[in-house]
From TrEMBL, chains A, B:
<feature type="domain" description="HTH lacI-type">
    <location>
        <begin position="2"/>
        <end position="56"/>
    </location>
</feature>
<keyword id="KW-0678">Repressor</keyword>
<dbReference type="Pfam" id="PF13377">
    <property type="entry name" value="Peripla_BP_3"/>
</dbReference>
<dbReference type="Pfam" id="PF00356">
    <property type="entry name" value="LacI"/>
</dbReference>
<dbReference type="InterPro" id="IPR000843">
    <property type="entry name" value="HTH_LacI"/>
</dbReference>
<keyword id="KW-0804">Transcription</keyword>
<keyword id="KW-0238">DNA-binding</keyword>
<dbReference type="InterPro" id="IPR010982">
    <property type="entry name" value="Lambda_DNA-bd_dom_sf"/>
</dbReference>
<keyword id="KW-0805">Transcription regulation</keyword>
<protein>
    <submittedName>
        <fullName>LacI family transcriptional regulator</fullName>
    </submittedName>
</protein>
<dbReference type="InterPro" id="IPR046335">
    <property type="entry name" value="LacI/GalR-like_sensor"/>
</dbReference>
<dbReference type="InterPro" id="IPR028082">
    <property type="entry name" value="Peripla_BP_I"/>
</dbReference>
<dbReference type="GO" id="GO:0003700">
    <property type="term" value="F:DNA-binding transcription factor activity"/>
</dbReference>
<dbReference type="GO" id="GO:0000976">
    <property type="term" value="F:transcription cis-regulatory region binding"/>
</dbReference>
Length: 325, 325
């Protein structure tokens, strides 16, 4: 394989000059640039990303830490992050915590070792405070932003409001919200806040419930939902804070002989593929997952040279009506 | 940040000796090792993965190319690959083609640039022949193995056989198999072969259909399924080659007033989370996704020093009975 030395020999230019062309550093004449490009083509020279990274303070690698990828919100998010990363000429290193805080620390170290140029943090458990002293910028998606350079959230409160309004408009009188993990503070908690506001404004009965963290880690909520419906038999509308939970509400309802949407109306959150796989298809709150992913990548790349910038972007959500309301 | 020079100074050992300890190369006395370990701890020295890679012929990065990650089979597979990779001390670089062959070529180049120590190829479109001359080993999962060092498949034919047998055992007389992409040869084609064998052995009416490639790329099969059920109104059992397709069969059946499993029995393939989100839950063929992922990673790491090894492992599948049969 051709090396930078071969390109230097072929062009008659010094290695330093060839390197300046590769890294687009300092003044380079058009003639010099063309000479190098011709030699690169002729020799089929492939610049070595590792060697190139070593001469810079970081690589062209972006790291991403996620709590799950079997969860469709995160697999969609990852899919869009990968696309945006690659389109901008970066490569993506992926880590999945499955809720393990110890693992998360090791992952951040692994990012450091690989000299990532930035980290996208979507994991919900770890206190970002611990990485404040990082040498790379951190963009957080849908999690507490302390310590992150930048945070991106959807408008969770607006989502809760839209869900409550739709259920009330469709005639529900006794509402339940299943949103938020007991004992973990997350941006998604605002979904309940918005839901509650609209219920109060319309004087409609409601209960806001949070679920134990192990359900989120296992992604199995059926026993919990069964208990809720058994204890509150007059419930006629449920707002679930993810499409996964909502799909399980549909199943539990079926097992109890309740028809959706006739006896029980259901709204999810996320608008992932899951929402179109259930029968009936799920009415849900659409998160702009693609836009959030693209903003995270472009913000991270923009922050590379400006590590002190901080901020938070809140993106609008919308109601997608399907068959469960 | 502490460098290898600082460790050398602290211990009084040469840089070469310290490097030998870091890379576990040649004879190192217990005393020397302990001295270095103490200095590393004291100085909070963090080895630079990039610098370390440069001194070796490859990095500790494994690349993986997938066709989709929103598809639950691939998100589950990726989740297990990430876990196995990290447990063995490697980092994972992820690329998603969404069926774009040009992008796939660029991704393989990106792997080359980042000096990956191996590549796991799960993408279904690209002719692996084109990377035969690679400088890193390639393990293929569920795709044509030409050019790959090693291929891992599940026993697709056995899966098709189990599906047909279950439908026949449950009394179906007119079966349809929806498996395989028109014009693309894939290991999954053997699912139809096995299905057909059992139908013939039992003298049961059957039709094996393939679907146009754009349905796979978009993951929306509903119009196609609707046409199949309209043209074959006496169909009482459907074998779909993924849980996604099967979930859409349930929806189309509902829209046509057909009850599942009373009027129409349905079997999927993969046994991903989707199978538990449908109503009723899906009877499906379980692929050992975790085992396939772990085998891919360990095979790849084992192949690093033995690039000429080739082979194929076929893993057993099983029937998981749920509510659709």
């Amino acid at each position: 394989m051709a090396t930078i030395k071969d390109v230097s020999k072929e062009t008659g230019l010094s290695i330093g000059t060839v390197s300046r062309v590769f890294n687009n550093r300092g003044y380079i004449s058009k003639e010099t640039r063309e000479k190098v490009e011709a030699a690169v083509k002729k020799l089929n020279y492939q610049p070595n990303a590792i060697a190139r990274s070593l001469s810079k303070s970081s690589s062209n690698i972006i790291g991403v830490i996620l709590p799950h990828i079997s969860h469709p919100f995160f697999s969609d998010l990852l899919s869009y992050i990968e696309n945006a990363t690659r389109e901008k000429g970066y490569s993506l290193m992926v880590f999945v915590t499955k809720g393990d805080e110890e693992a998360e620390l090791a992952m951040i170290n692994r990012c450091r070792e690989n000299k990532v140029c930035g980290l996208i943090l979507c994991s919900g458990r770890f206190a970002t405070k611990k990485i404040e002293s990082n040498e790379f910028p951190v963009v957080a998606i849908e999690r507490n932003p302390e310590g992150a350079s930048f945070a991106i959230e959807c408008n969770n409160r607006q989502g809760g409001r839209l869900a409550a309004q739709e259920l009330i408009d469709k005639g529900c009188k006794n509402l339940v919200s299943l949103a938020g993990i007991k004992g973990r503070k997350m941006p998604a908690d605002d979904r309940s806040t918005g839901f509650e506001e609209v219920c109060r404004e319309n004087s409609v009965n409601f209960t806001c419930l949070t679920y134990p963290p192990e359900l989120y880690d296992r992604l199995d909520y059926t026993a919990f939902i069964d208990k809720v419906l058994t204890e509150r038999p007059n419930t006629d509308g449920i707002f679930a804070s993810s499409d996964i939970i909502a799909s399980q509400v549909i199943q539990v309802a079926a097992s109890k002989g309740l028809k959706v949407p006739e006896d029980l109306k259901v709204i999810g959150f996320d608008d992932t593929l899951i929402a179109t796989y259930t029968t009936p298809q799920l009415t849900t709150i659409h998160q702009p997952i693609k836009e959030m992913a693209e903003l995270a990548v472009s913000t991270l790349i923009g922050l590379k040279d400006e590590k002190s910038a901080t901020g938070c972007t809140i993106m609008n959500v919308s109601l997608v009506k399907r068959g469960t309301t």
